[in-house]
Design goal:
Length: 143
């Protein structure tokens, strides 16, 4: 790593919006339960950027979560969530009532580079593509 590369120790939500926009995403501000978040889309499917922990005494985020919630019609095939989570390291899938939720945390705490943040956005885009293929092609094991 280059010694003169700036280390980011926290990031404002506006900085996350700029990062997404640089990667070609549109972003919109939204509010959920009194907390500001960003809305965007990948692969034609909407996702949210939810702020995580803030630096003590400041407003910069130490982490944030990329989250895609899809409404479920009917019941999920048994073992679907477990099958995804067993095969993926960076994005976790959960069944939350009427929603199937894919989430990925991005940590900034401790210091990261701009390249790390760009790579996290690229990873999220790839996870979204793989998630849609997984949903389209999943068949419950028989036996």
């Amino acid at each position: 790593m280059s010694e003169n590369q700036d280390i980011i120790e926290d990031i404002e939500l506006d900085g996350v919006a700029a990062l997404l926009q640089e990667a070609g995403y549109r972003t919109n501000d939204s509010e959920q339960n009194g907390t500001r978040q960003l809305l965007s889309a990948s692969q034609g499917i909407g996702f949210a950027v939810r702020p995580g922990n803030t630096r003590e005494g400041g407003t910069g985020l130490l982490d944030f979560t990329l989250s895609c919630a899809l409404r479920i019609d009917g019941e999920l095939p048994e073992g679907m969530v477990t099958a995804w989570n067993r095969g993926k390291r960076f994005g976790r899938l959960s069944d939350q009532g009427d929603f199937l939720v894919l989430e990925m945390d991005v940590l900034v705490a401790g210091g990261v580079s701009q390249g790390y943040l760009r790579t996290a956005v690229e990873l999220w885009d790839r996870l979204m593509r793989e998630f849609l293929l997984f949903l389209r092609n999943y068949t419950a094991p028989t036996g």
